[in-house]
Amino acid sequence: MPEKKFKYLSKEWAEEVERRLKKELTPDKMKHITSSMLTVYTNCPDGKTRAVYYKLTDGKVETVTLVEGTLPKAEFSITAEYEMFARISRAELKARSALMSGKMSLKGNLVKALTLSPTVDRLNEVIARVPTEY
Amino acid sequence: MPVKKKVAVKTDPYFIDFPKRVKSIQKEMARHGIDVYLGSRLRTLSWIVDAFMPWRSYIVIPPEGLPTVITFVIDAARVADDSWLDQDHILGYGPMGGQDQVALLTGLIKPYLKAGKGIIGMETGMGTYLPEGHLTLFEFVMLKAAMPKATFKNAHEMVDRLSMIKDIGTINRFREASRIVDIGHKVVREAISDGGYLKMTETEVAGLAAYAMRKVGSEWEWSFTGGNEIAAGYRTGLAAGACTPASRKKLKTGEPLMVDLHAMFKLGLGDHSHNYFLGKASKRQLWHAQNFVDLIKKCLKAYKPGVSPTKLADQLLAFAEEREFQDYLVPGFEHGIGMMGDEWRIGLNDGPFEYWTNPEHPYKKDEMLICAVQYACPEEDVGFRYENPILITENGCEALSKFPLSIDVV
Q1: What does R_g of chain B's alpha carbons equal in angstroms?
Q2: According to the model, what pLDDT value does residue B3 have?
Q3: Residue B58 or B9, more confident
Q4: Residue B273, CA distances (Å) to B297, B373, B385, B394 in order
Q5: Which of A127, B220, B327, B333 is deepest in the core (most CB within 10 A)?
Q6: Structural contact between residues B85 and B45, judged by C-beta atoms closer than 8 angstroms
């Protein structure tokens, strides 16, 4: 039976991401960080802008929420085109390269972001394993 | 304003009320109709942040509340550790989307502009001092493109005016830096005495002094003129010269030696020069030396509130003429000084030549300057330098370096 695929940025995809993050990432693995992050996807296939909001408290993934319309405040906000994020998720492009080329934009304290990036990479590794249909 | 716990307490002799400095700038901003201030000069950063900032950095001062600093990301955590400002107000910039200098500055400034309009105070100008840090044309063009409806106004005079009179914490930092410099001089004198100078080079003298001063807490031989400036022989008497980064020149018997040491303590600056003859001195050399020492004594007696660089120069040049050594005197007797990055011009930019000292600037109590006198006789390969941080007091001045004034034959 073929593996079920989740439509990228759908409600079901966000729920699966949250389920897996909560299951696979322990507070120790996430270095007990407390933070919030918003990934903003511009120019989605339907022309809209969408975002995913992640909230971590003491290393525990609390919520992964799909957002449309007014964006909540977050400690870090990463903005790029939908296709750019999709390429990163498909491991065709590294997030660092996207940031360094200016195709992806980060808002928030860069020093903190650099400190947190190895930990956030763990989060991305889990997300990358979610069977996804782009 | 919330501040970090490690901020010095008022009983600390080096305490400076930095939040008060920020509020004083904000008061001036309101008076001048400036919505937000963008500082980029090293002197402004030192005066507000209380951290040494060697990389291109900026400070955005809102109309009220804490300022935010941005510096090169590789140094942001260290600056935040040294500063009274917390890490949420010391940000790093780097070559990443949304994190370059222009993007960060625009993001910090825009919230204080109404519909993109408003007045941004900036720091531009001209200087002899390389690391001054004026906003560059490129930075200005990029920021203007990002905020096209905003008006940029050169406003550094506000900071210059506020930082001119020194508070007790600043003065004490300078006093300590001078005490450290004096230790450097003591070690150099001991090392070069009784033939100790033989086989030594200028760079070695510079290093000896640096080591001695660092041992007692100097953070840096701060001067951009090559740290400790050491000159021997003909290099002491270069025509109209007053800048001698140490070279590999060997010290030789019968030659003059100029030892100009710099130490930094909590961004307060020590800067004192002492002069020697190595092994022996001719009658003529001692004549030059006596002229110089007498001139410095006269100079130190002259500093007091109300005296201006012109008045002082007139008096000292008259003395030089009377003693017939006017040909050997570089006709300038001081330069400005403040916390790290504030060097060279005295007072405000209000003289006949833009961004040079106003020769009519009247000194005021608690103003500081570096008494800087250069004597140079190129045809005889002899010269001397005197530098000493001077605090203008109620009726005279206090020379912060206490190393005895003399030209010693060692």
Answers
A1: 23
A2: 47
A3: B58
A4: 14, 10, 6, 26
A5: B333
A6: no
Q: Please compute the mean of the pLDDT values over residues B325-349 and round it to a whole number.
A: 93
Q: Supply the pLDDT for residue B344.
A: 86
Token pair 């790029």: residue: A80
Using the Cα atoms of residue B13, residue B87, residue B78 and residue B156 in order, give the sign of their dihedral: negative
Q: Do B88 and A105 touch (CB under 8 A)?
A: no
Interface contact B98-A106, CB threshold 8 A? yes
Mean pLDDT of B307-315: 94
Among A102, A109, A114, beta carbon nearest to B97: A102
Is residue B341 a part of any domain in this protein?
yes
Flag if A99 and B96 touch (Cβ within 8 Å): yes
- Mark whether B128 and B221 lie in a shared domain: no
Residues 70-99 of B with CB under 8 A from A: 73, 76-77, 80, 87-88, 91-99
Q: Which residues contact B47 (CB under 8 A, 6 or more apart)?
A: B21, B159, B163, B338, B339, B342
With beta carbons under 8 A apart, name residues in chain B contacting A105: 97-98, 103
Residue B179 lies in domain:
165-409
> What percentage of chain A carries pLDDT values higher than 90?
75
CATH of the domain at B61: 3.40.350.10
Distance from C-alpha of A99 to C-alpha of B259, rounded to nearest angstrom: 50
Confidence (pTM): 0.93
**Average pLDDT, rounded, for chain B:** 96
pLDDT bin (cut points 50, 70, 90) of residue B7 is low
Question: What is the arithmetic mean of pLDDT over A90-94?
Answer: 82
Helices (H), chain A: 11-24, 82-89, 95-100, 110-128
Kindly report the nearest CA distance between residue A129 and chain B, in angstroms: 26
B337 domain-assigned:
yes
CB A75 within 8 A of CB A37: yes
Please name the residue of chain B whose CA is at the shortest distance from the CA of residue A104. B97
Picking from B155, B143, B138, the residue whose alpha carbon sits closest to that of residue B116 is B143
Work out the minimum CA distance from A83 to partner chain B, whole angstroms. Answer: 16
